[in-house]
Amino acid sequence: MSNKDPIIKRRQSTRINVGHVPIGDGAPIAVQSMTNTRTTDVEATVAQIKALERVGVDIVRVSVPTMDAAEAFKLIKQQAKVPLIADIHFDYRIALKVAEYGVDCLRINPGNIGNEGRIRSVVDCARDRNIPIRIGVNSGSLEKDIQEKYGEPTPQAIVESALRHVEILDRLNFDQFKVSVKASDVFTAVEAYRILAKQIKQPLHLGITEAGGARSGAVKSAIGLGLLLSEGIGDTLRVSLAADPTEEVKVGFDILKSLRIRSRGINFIACPTCSRQEFDVIGTVNELERRLEDIITPMDVSIIGCVVNGPGEALASTLGVAGGHNKSGFYEDGVRHDRLDNDKMIEQLEERIRAKAALLANR
Ligand code: SF4
Question: Where does this protein have coiled-coil stretches (predicted)?
Fold first, then answer.
């Protein structure tokens, strides 16, 4: 086995399909995000979905809080390429409406819809139209009696809440669903997912809710989701950040890339730099990350400031550069080629990375 082969054995689960994206049963782990525009502002919401599509999002969730938003959803759905999940709380009529408008998944908790007749109408509609449901339990909004029983949102409390919704769908003989049990505390969320993973066979959607800003939220999510994914738990994920939603997608893919679960685009390997560096490594990496966001072909590119670690990293990368005086050694598939000019490093590397990506994509 190469040290770049996947090393994680995934939990067995059933499969659902969110539009054209398969979830569970060994399907690639899907990266999700959520729009934060007003859904009634169709233009802004579509623009955000397009931006998310450009960075590779698999599925986008859109809040549909009102009937006006449901009407806007109809227009948004017509313009989105990726599958859309409608996020609905309480109002079953909105669920029926977006189902009519072609929603790909309903995020609704059956226990919160109301009486049996309403629950049944939503579940029957989902069944008739092949629309899966996501049960989404959040540590911040547990049922009152569960809060009183446990005193605080413990992992067991969150799972008990989720299982209530699962039991409703079981009773109605509906198994096309996935479940999330999110908490803002990493340990609580991780433990809740571990418990739930043993109790149901459906796919799990991972997330650390309200994780925080771009940096702290990314770290928290990487730890929480990383622990779960490394144990094989998780079939879709969302990194919740108080930041531009496209950042959520980038961090989501970075987490999957780090765990060698799913590659998309360039995996940059860069040294932290020190006084030995022969060119501006940090500036080069940051600029190339920005310029090459559109590349989806997986490849490792090592950018190392000197010959201490440069040749070694380059040997194990698709492309690599090892800093030298005025000119730096360039490697392709582990073989040393020519040298790049340190003062034209960004342009020359961009050109070569793009050429390599095109070559690999055409294979
Ligand atoms: Fe410093 Fe060279 Fe190590 Fe980079 S690879 S941190 S430049 S010694």
Answer: none
